[in-house]
Amino acid sequence: MNLGTTKAERTRNFIIEKTAEIFNRKGYAGTSMADITEATGLTKGSIYGNFQNKEEVALAVFEYNRSLVFNRVQAELEKAGSYFEKLMVYGRIYKDVIASVSNRGGCPILNTAVEADDTNIPLRLSAAKALFSWKKNLVGIIEKGTGAGEFRKGINAEEMAVSIIALIEGGVMFSQVTNDYTNMDHVLATVQLLVKGIRA
Q1: pLDDT for 117-127, tens place per residue?
Q2: The dihedral sign for the CA sequence 177, 69, 113, 158
Q3: Of 64, 70, 101, 118, which is least surrounded by CB within 10 A?
């Protein structure tokens, strides 16, 4: 939490951090105002003084939870010395990334996308935005890698990016449902094969 922010911003951050795991575990519908006040020790009036409603809290919490995963991956991407190695990050460390958030309820993108599919348009749009951003990053890596001669010409970058994301999120879903995260090993091995398959 940034101590240089205003009191109102610190209170908002406090509410987000204290309720992030609850929303990720219980979902928007399953998280009550009683859950929020219990986790924060604040009154309903204090919560509503910082957020218009529960949905606004949920949207802020989703972004916070998403950033935990994004920042972990981004740190690994920055260490990679080539575009090939950057793509391999997704096939190498994503099991550890998901394991690190499993005790917080699992992947926030998957959780939010499934719950909000037909019931909460703003949350669904937030999940979609996160996926589009992830896809854009992957497409950029593939296109730059192709330009640098690391990947074969003619690769459909968008198709490859969507396939990688679908494999990873599908693996997360399978692992969460079966409570067996070794299933991610099989999925991530396939991701690595895909990436190696487009090498120049």
Answers
A1: 677 888 888 88
A2: negative
A3: 118
